[in-house]
Structure formats: structure tokens, C-alpha cells
Design a protein that fits this description.
The protein has one domain. The protein is built from 2 helices and no strands.
């Protein structure tokens, strides 16, 4: 099942800081 895990890692690289991910999710899930 590594075939499915491979694209996931490429699509969502860990290079993105949690701050950006958290802020984006917070704004997308709960827009001010």
C-alpha cells in the first residue's frame, strides 16, 4: 500500500510549516 502513500507525501510535503497549515485550516474551517 506504499503506492497510495507515495502520492500523499508528494502532494503534502512536510516542508510546509505547521503554522501555515494551522492558520490556513483555521481560516478555511472557521472564517472570521
Amino acid at each position: 500500500m506504499r503506492h497510495v502513500n507515495r502520492p500523499v507525501t508528494e502532494f503534502m510535503p512536510q516542508r510546509i510549516p505547521n503554522s501555515v497549515l494551522g492558520a490556513f485550516a483555521s481560516t478555511f474551517l472557521l472564517p472570521d
